[in-house]
Write the structure tokens for this entry.
Amino acid sequence: MKIAFYGSSLVSAYWNGAATYYRGLLRALSGKGYEITFYEPNVYDRQKNRDIDPPDWCRVVVYEGTIDALKAVAGEAASADIVVKASGVGFEDDLLLEEVLRNARAKAIKIFWDVDAPATLAELRVNPDHPLCRALPRIDLVLTYGGGDPVVSAYRSVGAAECIPVYNALDPQTHHPVPEDPRFVADLGFLGNRLPDREARVEHFFLEPASRLRDRKFLLGGSGWHDKPMSSNVNYIGHVPTRDHNAFNVTPMAVLNISRASMAETGFSPATRVFEAAGAGACLITDYWEGIDLFLKPDEEILVARDGEDVAALLAGLAPRGAQEIGERARQRVLAEHTYANRAETVDAIFRARLGARVEAAE
């Protein structure tokens, strides 16, 4: 079966948090026999900052950020059995959705794959005439990066025929234990770009604990923090390429997950870094959000902080050996239950059931 997938980028994680999700899931689906073409626009300097070459398990088509180029690649949806338009592509998203739906065959399964459901749903609530709202009657299925029952209910309330969460997971081929790297030595590390929906939470959960625990070393990676005031015990290292993520996760005694505000409020939305860190065997401290225990067991496989004071207390009471034990338990849990191979089983069953139902209806 052929999948035409229109997303932000598969070959570049530069300002593109969905890259790990796309790579892990699509590679696993390829292993199940799907023939996948990923269409991505040449915008935001992503092609200048590629961190992988086009893979052998997926054809990658890069198109220029022009209306003509968009319409040309959208026309290729006509040859696919499954057509996916992801959220947040980054160039004329509304037009791309319309063109993809217009070109898709009547018998093709048409999917909107939302990698930031809280943000999308917030837009739909304030604008009932949003192009996505108008398109939902022609979309067979909404798949989401996470969100659980709240997101499913919200999507159904605005007209989605069906909504199913497909959570982040671990790709053991890319995220796994590696030797420690002296560049990343710290008591607590955090890796994340500076975003309006996250900045205040980074101040609260990371920078404030750092200012209180002056005898501890803190490590900050990610783009955009260069002019942010921070205490002298915070080592800011800027953008960390994906090839270094494993070393970043295994070297500090613990690493911190800080959800964007909308994800934390929605719940059931584990970030990719949760599984990346667990897959490397890192001791992970996360801010609280509903649904954590569906993925990792608090206090045994992950440590949970409700505020910056909790982060400081957890770090002050943590010893290297205990951190290693928590990290190893997390690694075993995600390898058993939360890999992209697990997620692909679910997605494959969804696709085959829907395509099978269409064949039966045609007969």
In short: The mean pLDDT is 95. The longest strand covers residues 35-42.
